Every structure is written in structure tokens, then in C-alpha cells.
């Protein structure tokens, strides 16, 4: 399942456009091919989305679902992704308004909404609630069999959560397609699933089946593609992170791309980001596990320079290359070709 | 919740006593203070449990629940733990017989049994089904706050699954208590939960909340104890393993103990166990994450020598000490004092 391309979409983004928790909605606004007709954020109605976010899509911002109805949306997507995935209390009113107005609902939060009687009662024929973060059925445990696939498997890994791993994997995927390769982007988070389908919501999978879910996904597509771009999750540096390890074990990557936000020095209060070359070593050590698995290189570094000017971005990229000896670029800003060249050389 | 100490227990262990999947039942037979009155295994009825397993508890072995009834059991525990946690088809008949005969059921497998209508229909007042592997309510994400606790936090880590991490943590806990310390064993798997309660079934927790569940457990007890012994799960070397990383991040261990089965050379088909000193480095690298977290030493090595003679065991221990430079013993065979001394010196 993915976000339908023939239905008009509204994105519920209260305090997400200017704030820090709007990752899902903003990524959809940046990347989705679906017709997004309106964004809803009570903090900034009437303001310009491109000016606030740099996203080049002209979508009006309104304060509520009622105000959004004039744009005739058919689907409401909950566009925030708070840490832990709990729905804020002040979102309920808008969600009920949307269902009462005949819209379907796409929910990427942990709490399933399709089973709540109050919401189910509002559904009329043709309306549905899609809870994206639901453990897939028929999972097993992983056996490292992705090693047997002939394709390249490129996994993005990060110094932190929310630094641009999905975007980097998407850019690598598009660059691969432009080169005429059979390329597949494999999403592992709710936003990627809304954009592309064909993946897994890894953080909703039980620990015992996490690597197995990744392996199942990679095995399903690996035989028919030249290169798989596996969306990374979390960070080996983040105190709450668990997802990186099953991604490495389940996908058995042939290369990793390290994603980092330029200038960021801590992953959380008091937890420093070590020099990038040490982070590279950490990921390579875990991937090869002292010799239990083949060596997997971090082939290049994707630098997120969104908050920098172009000159500052270029300086940060040059500095990162000097410090690490690895090719580096900002794939959102300058394209992913440099990263892809590095993948092919490894 | 834990296994009640005032009820007569039967353990369902078909193909588990001589086979490889009886870990839960055999650990209960080895360690539980509950009155276990009969074990059920159709492969070896009438045979001697001590002779088959080395466990010093004289419990009769019978072929079925019907045959077990003469020992008047009140609780049936499913004692097998197959990889992936699925109930074998040929177990259903015995489970239904037990419920029909008035017994309660303790289930450590992934599939919840308490919600199955056929089984619920058999329950009479006073009878219950305890699904041990259930995600606890009210979880959040971890923040590394266990770092602030003044107590020691000793985590067992392994070269493989099922090598003796729980047993090592239990032995360390008892040795700590004998020294007069306020010590707590914190189980993270179904067997430990049946034995001691007060823990979490980590492999049933969703990836997003895994480290948070560990942190919550450690924070709940850390202030009132001198030393916490946290039961390890999985292995950074195992292809299906995910649980070790959230255990490290959530518990913020002060020391680790590496558990290894003497003589084992592969974790799975074609995946070698590297030299132990490299495995030690791997765990220490992940725990400190290149400087993001304080250094956490692997203080000692617990060697599982169950399949060796005493002379062979002593030789293997001496060789491990020479190879790694770390203190080593088999805590089941020779007690955990040497390991505990090493924890205190670090």
C-alpha cells in the first residue's frame, strides 16, 4: 500500500511546519507524487510553505480541517512524527472533522486508529483508515541469507535520527534509475511507506522479528534488481536506537552511506557525536563483527547542509572529505552522483 | 508476575529434554523454586532427568498430559522455546487436556494463547492463561538516563544465543547476595520472568520502544540496589539478533560479562565466531560508540563448559585466560566469585 496518486491529499501538521516534529508531512510535501492540495498548521495559516521550509511546492496553509475543506481533500495524512509516536490530544478534533467530512485517514503514528470505535463509527462506504505502522504478518527470524543475493545493497546509516537517511536513499535511488539500472528504494519507516509502499515499518516490529522482517523484504526484491537502496533508521549513537542493528544483519549491506547533519555535535543532551572517522569505524566494526561477516565499507558521507548557505555547505563538504578521506556531498542539494560513484568503486 | 511457588507445576517439553529447544523448561527444572512435579516428553517417558540432563532434580518424565495427571499438577508451563517462538501443532492436544483438567497455563511463546476462544472456553473460575511474552504498557523511548544511577549495572553479552547468559546473571546475582550486597536480577526473557518476575520480555517489545523498556526497568530498581544483574539477550554476532543493542543503550552497563560456549566455532551456518578478544573489542566498541558513551569494559568471560569433563573445562578456562588476558570461569560449575571479583576491580 502507498499514498494513492489519484486522490487529493491534506496534511495535518499542527506545529510541524516551523517546529521539529513535522518530518513525515514535510517529506511528503517534498517528495510525494500525490496531489497534496492543502497543509494544516494552526501556527502559520496563510503563510508561504516555500518561504517557511524551502520546499518548492505551492500548497496553501490553513488553520484547521474545517478551513481545509474548501480545497476538497479526499485523504487526510497525519504529518507529524513525535518521538515515541503518540498522537497529541489536540489532534483529535481535526481527525474527527475529517472523517465526518468523508475523508480517508492515513496514520503513521504508533497508536492504531482503525480500531477505535468512535472513529470507525464515522466511516462511510469508500472511506478507510490506514494505520501504516503495523507489524507485517508471517515474520520469522533472520538467517543472513541476503548475503547470497547478487545485487548491491546500499544501507544509509546515521549519526542521529532524522538527519536525512530516507532522503539520501531516495536520491541514490533516483540517480541509479537515471543511469539505467534496475533500482529499488526499500522504505523502513512510515513516511517512506506512504511515498513508495513495498517496505516495512521497522519500528513497529517486535525485537525478535526485526532482522527477519528486513531480510524478508530484501529477499523479496533482491533477485530482480541491480541495486537496492535500503532506508536506514536510527543511529548506533542514539540512546533510544535499536533499528540500525537489525537493518545491518537483515539486509547484509554491500556498502553503507553515513548521513550526518553538518555542524551537529550532540545526538542528545550530553551525548557527543564522535569525530566522523570514528563513527565510520563503529559502523564498519559492527557490520563485519570482528570477522563474523564480510567487511562492509562506509563508501561515502552524505552531509545534510540544509541550514547552511551554499558557500558554507561547500566548505563543510570539503572539510569532511579532508577529515575522513571519504567522498562527501549533500545529495539533496547537489545530487547523489558522487555518492553513487563511491558505491560503485567499492 | 512470576511462577507461583505454592502450586504444583508440570512442564510440557516434547522433544525438549534430549533435543535443542527445551531451554525454558530445562532452566526452570534447574533453577525454579516452584514445586515441579512432572515433566512431559513423549521421546523419553520413564527415563531419568538427572541422567539425561545433569539437572539434580528428581522429576518423573511422562509421555502426555493425561499421564501427568496422577501427579496432580495445577499449572502447565510450555517449556520449549523454538526459534521464532511458534507453537508446534502437536502441542495443542496436551494444552487442551491440561485446561480441561483444571490446570492453569503459562505460555512463553510469541503467540498469545489467552485470547484464543477455544482455549478461553475451557477456563473455569480460578484457572488462568499467562502469556509471558507480552509488551508491557506505557513504554517510551530511552534517554540514556540509567547513566545517572549510582549502582553497578552488569550486563551479560554473548557470542551466540542460548549460551548461558541468564544462568550467568543468576549466578552473579546469588554470589552478590552471599556477599551481603543489595542485588537484583533483572530478567529480559520469558524464562527469567517465570523464575523471578520484575523484568521485561524484551523480544516481544516493538523496536521503537526496546531501549526504553530496558531503561524503564533499570530505573525502577536501580536506586534501591547496589548491583543490578541484567540478563543479556541475543548476540551482536547472530544474524537474527536485535536485542543486544537496546540492552546496552537502555541499561548503560558499568561492566559486561562475555558468555561463550567452550569449543563453539560458528553462530550459524557459515558465520564464524571470531577470536574472543575480537568479540570483546566489538562489545566495548559498541558500548562506548567511539566516545559517545563512557568506556564499558568486558570485565571477564563466563565459559559454558557443560559438554566438557572437569579436566577439559579447567583447561579451556586456562586457555581462554591466556588468549584474552581476562579472568574466566564457568560460573555454573565453579561459582561466579571470580567473575564478581573482576566486576568489582573495574
Automatic annotation (TrEMBL), chains A, B:
Residues 141-340 form the D-glutamate N-acetyltransferase-like C-terminal domain. InterPro entries: DgcN-like (IPR011669), DgcN-like_C (IPR035086), DgcN-like_N (IPR035402), P-loop_NTPase (IPR027417). PANTHER family: DUF1611 DOMAIN-CONTAINING PROTEIN (PTHR40690:SF1), GLL3100 PROTEIN (PTHR40690). Residues 42-135 form the D-glutamate N-acetyltransferase-like N-terminal domain. This is DUF1611 domain-containing protein. It comes from Fischerella thermalis JSC-11. It comes from the Bacteria.
Amino acid at each position: 500500500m502507498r499514498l494513492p496518486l489519484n486522490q487529493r491529499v491534506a496534511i495535518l501538521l499542527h506545529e510541524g511546519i516551523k517546529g521539529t516534529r513535522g518530518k513525515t508531512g514535510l517529506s511528503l510535501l517534498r517528495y510525494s507524487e500525490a496531489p497534496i492540495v492543502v497543509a494544516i498548521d494552526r501556527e502559520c495559516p496563510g503563510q508561504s510553505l516555500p518561504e517557511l521550509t524551502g520546499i518548492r511546492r505551492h500548497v496553501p496553509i490553513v488553520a484547521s480541517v474545517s478551513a481545509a475543506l474548501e480545497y476538497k481533500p479526499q485523504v487526510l495524512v497525519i504529518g507529524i512524527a513525535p518521538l515515541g509516536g503518540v498522537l497529541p490530544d489536540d489532534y483529535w478534533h481535526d481527525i474527527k472533522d475529517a472523517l465526518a467530512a468523508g475523508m480517508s485517514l492515513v496514520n503513521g503514528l504508533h497508536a492504531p486508529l482503525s480500531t477505535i470505535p468512535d472513529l470507525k463509527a464515522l466511516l462511510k462506504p469508500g472511506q478507510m483508515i490506514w494505520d501504516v505502522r503495523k507489524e507485517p504478518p508471517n515474520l520469522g527470524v533472520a538467517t543472513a541469507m541476503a548475503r547470497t543475493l547478487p545485487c548491491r545493497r546500499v544501507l544509509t546509516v546515521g549519526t542521529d535520527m532524522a538527519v536525512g537517511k530516507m532522503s539520501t536513499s531516495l536520491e541514490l535511488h533516483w540517480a541509479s534509475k537515471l543511469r539505467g539500472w534496475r533500482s529499488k528504494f526499500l522504505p523502513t519507516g512510515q513516511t517512506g511507506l506512504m511515498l513508495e509502499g513495498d517496505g516495512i515499518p521497522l519500528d513497529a516490529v517486535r525485537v525478535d522479528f526485526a532482522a527477519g522482517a528486513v531480510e524478508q523484504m530484501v529477499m523479496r526484491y533482491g533477485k530482480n534488481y541491480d541495486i537496492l537502496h535500503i532506508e536506514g533508521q536510527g543511529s548506533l549513537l542514539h540512546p533510544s536506537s535499536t533499528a540500525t542493528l537489525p537493518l545491518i544483519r537483515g539486509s547484509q549491506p554491500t556498502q553503507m552511506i553515513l548521513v550526518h547533519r553538518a555542524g551537529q555535535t550532540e545526538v542528545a543532551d550530553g551525548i557527543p557525536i564522535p569525530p566522523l572517522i570514528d563513527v565510520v569505524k563503529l559502523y564498519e566494526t559492527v557490520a563485519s563483527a570482528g570477522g563474523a561477516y564480510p567487511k562492509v565499507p562506509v563508501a561515502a558521507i552524505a552531509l545534510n547542509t540544509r541550514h547552511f548557505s551554499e558557500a558554507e555547505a561547500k566548505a563543510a563538504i570539503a572539510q569532511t572529505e579532508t577529515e575522513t578521506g571519504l567522498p562527501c556531498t549533500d545529495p539533496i542539494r547537489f545530487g547523489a552522483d558522487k555518492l553513487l560513484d563511491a558505491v560503485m568503486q567499492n
